[in-house]
Amino acid sequence: MLRRYILLNTNKFVNCRHVSQSMLQSTVDEKSGIATVTMNKPPVNSLNLEFLDEINTQLNKLQKDKIRGMILTSGLQKVFCAGLDITEFYNPNPDRLAKFWTVLQDTWLSLYMASFPTVAVINGHSPAGGCLFAMSCDYRVMVGPKYTIGLNETKLGIVAPKWFQDTMVAVIGQRKAEVSLTTGKMYTTDEALQVGLIDESLPDADSALKKGTQFLNNFQRISPWAFKMTKDISRQPTVQWLIDNKQKDLDFVLKFMQSPDVQKSLGLYLQSLKK
Ligand SMILES: CCCCCCCC/C=C/C=C/CC(=O)SCCNC(=O)CCNC(=O)[C@H](O)C(C)(C)COP(=O)(O)OP(=O)(O)OC[C@H]1O[C@@H](n2cnc3c(N)ncnc32)[C@H](O)[C@@H]1OP(=O)(O)O
């Protein structure tokens, strides 16, 4: 594997393995075994088929490499991740939509059940699929106060799938999740902290990255096996539905997304974004 010194977000030179460089940059600190995976797909890190495929491949690779922990963050100025790429849903090609949704399901399962501890350093806005990715990590540190996070699907005239909803319930509880989901609430950093959607709020990206690393360092004294078994038991109720219903979930999405009402709502929403 290529070894070199590279400049990380922390502005410090560290000895690390450089794993890949494209829409996704991944570096592994040799000493700690912690990987930093940086999403870098301008303008807003929207998750299309190719980007999701790259993220999933990278997660599987990190798992094989037996890394000790991972920080997921963004290389963009003010967006962590704008969620799923809405153009994948608008006037979709059914074959591509099916591939897209299947890769999304697989990527979520890889992230949610990662064998290593994960931290989202949320250094920008994080709506919908961006919030799902953050919630799927084991710990969330967000840069405040000006960014927002939440599952806003109802505001687009669409419905967050069951497993998106269940992920939120697992983080903030049934009642708060229900209100949050039905209203499509986007939380400010302070609100997200209050409701438990994030674990910490820091004023800048460097201190957020340090905090994330500190969290991962807790696991230096914990057996990876004990960590993974505990996480599996804790998260099993949330993932089992999707594992058992992948095809049903896909069929739902294909039908739902091609309905004229949903297409109309999406068209209007895309137009409002362009404005
Ligand atoms: C019965 C049960 C059935 C269940 C089945 C239902 C299944 C359906 C499930 C769907 C689930 C979907 C989850 C999602 O993730 S949907 C995506 C939701 N995302 C958003 O709403 C975010 C929208 N974007 C923003 O709010 C902003 O862009 C923001 C991220 C805050 C950044 O703002 P800013 O920096 O000002 O950037 P701009 O708004 O100017 O955007 C720059 C360009 O990027 C385009 N853009 C933005 N977001 C997306 C996106 N998600 N997908 C595609 N494109 C996006 C935007 O249009 C600008 O484009 P352009 O430069 O051409 O004008």
From TrEMBL:
The superkingdom of the source organism is Eukaryota
CDD domains xref list = crotonase-like
| Metabolic or biological pathway, per its Swiss-Prot or TrEMBL entry | Lipid metabolism; fatty acid beta-oxidation
Any GO MF annotation of the entry:
delta(3)-delta(2)-enoyl-CoA isomerase activity
Per its record, the protein catalyses: (3Z)-decenoyl-CoA = (2E)-decenoyl-CoA; (3Z)-dodecenoyl-CoA = (2E)-dodecenoyl-CoA; (2E)-tetradecenoyl-CoA = (3Z)-tetradecenoyl-CoA; (3Z)-octenoyl-CoA = (2E)-octenoyl-CoA
Assigned GO CC terms: mitochondrial matrix
Query: Keywords in UniProt for this one?
Result: Acetylation, Fatty acid metabolism, Isomerase, Lipid metabolism, Mitochondrion, Transit peptide
Q: Which residues form a coiled coil?
A: none
Q: Name one Pfam family in it.
A: ECH_1
Q: Which SUPFAM superfamilies match?
A: ClpP/crotonase
GO biological-process terms attached to the record = fatty acid beta-oxidation
* Subcellular location as annotated: Mitochondrion matrix
Query: What job does this protein perform?
Result: Key enzyme of fatty acid beta-oxidation. Able to isomerize both 3-cis (3Z) and 3-trans (3E) double bonds into the 2-trans (2E) form in a range of enoyl-CoA species, with a preference for (3Z)-enoyl-CoAs over (3E)-enoyl-CoAs. The catalytic efficiency of this enzyme is not affected by the fatty acyl chain length.
Quaternary data = Homotrimer.
Family in the record: Belongs to the enoyl-CoA hydratase/isomerase family.
Q: What is this protein called?
A: Enoyl-CoA delta isomerase 1, mitochondrial
Q: Which organism is it from?
A: Acyrthosiphon pisum (Pea aphid)
Upper lineage: Eukaryota, Metazoa, Ecdysozoa, Arthropoda, Hexapoda
